[in-house]
Amino acid sequence: MKQVKVNAYEVGLVFRKGALQKVLEQGTYWFWKGEQVYVYDTTREFIAPVELNILLANEQLAAMLELVEVKDTELVLQYVNGILKAVLKAGRYTFWKGPVNYAFVKVDISKVAIDPGFDRMVLNHALLAPYVRTYTIENYEKGVLFMDGKFEGFLESGIYHWWKNPVVIQVAKVDTRQLQVEINGQEILTKDKAALRLNAWAQYKVLDIEKALLQNKEYERQLYISIQLVLREYVAGFGFDELLEKKEAIAPYMLERIKDKAEALGVEVVGFGIRDIILPGDVKEIMNQVLVAEKRAQANTIMRREETASTRSLLNTAKLMEENAMLWKLKEMEYVEKIAEKISTITVNGNGKLVEQLKELFTPK
After folding, report:
1. How far, rounded to the nearest angstrom, does the alpha carbon of residue 306 sit from its chain's CA centroid?
2. What is the per-residue burial (b if ≥16 Cβ within 10 Å, else e) of 180-214?
3. Which end of the chain is more exposed for a tag (fewer CB within 10 A), N or C?
4. Is the pLDDT of residue 15 over 80?
């Protein structure tokens, strides 16, 4: 014989020739050699040693167990003493009643929608996260929802959750802020066959998400090409010199011409500008020569104008001096003063008449 002790919070099952004979609660028992005893901890899940339906035929054991059946289209959230401990997938599970407070929440995942009242903290739990699809639409975005390739509706900003199942979910998002497209390195011929390279930019906003995503494919690329073609059309309609003179008119023209095409794409172009106009090397050299020649001509004109003014001033001064002897004498003294500033020493040799001569020289008549 052999002795078997069943402690508190344990249950023993006695089998003879593979058949359940008895259920043992706390105590000490003696058995013959042919009997097999399994002792289970009732704080843990019960794993049946034989087919579960056979064991549940025992009314005493069935009353001690809680059976949880999970279908293929279901999940069961297992809570232990109010805390989520496991997510049960399809199958049959048995737990002991009594020492541990179990709670089971069954959810249907055959549909993608999640009950709005479902706790978000539970949806974000690490145990449940593998079974949930989460999409975030930022405050500056709008979304479009497709299920199995079919349009379902528009999504405003927020966080969305759906169950993972065979249904294919796609979420397309559009940034509704003001965006900018760069149109760089455009090689364009003017009307007089001058090759230019332009770098431009355009600012736009998405106004109609249905047109942008549902009625058009790659609306950003289509907008880029439309702006590119209108810009080429404008540049090709003017000669090089005329284009440089009218470069300020490019933006209004572009905004007006691109308006209808942008509207068909669901966007609005709110700004346009030319960042650079790059000339070929030979044209740039010629332009520099023209600019230097123009500046030289302007400088010569200014110099001639100043010389004429200076001559006219001298003529007026001469007329005044001719009419006024005192002014003439003052002018002579002014020049003598300027000469005297550069002379450090004056030596005068002569007889007594020299002083009289100097006196006559500097005294006005």
Report:
1. 60
2. ebebeebebebeeebebebebebebebebbebbbe
3. C
4. yes
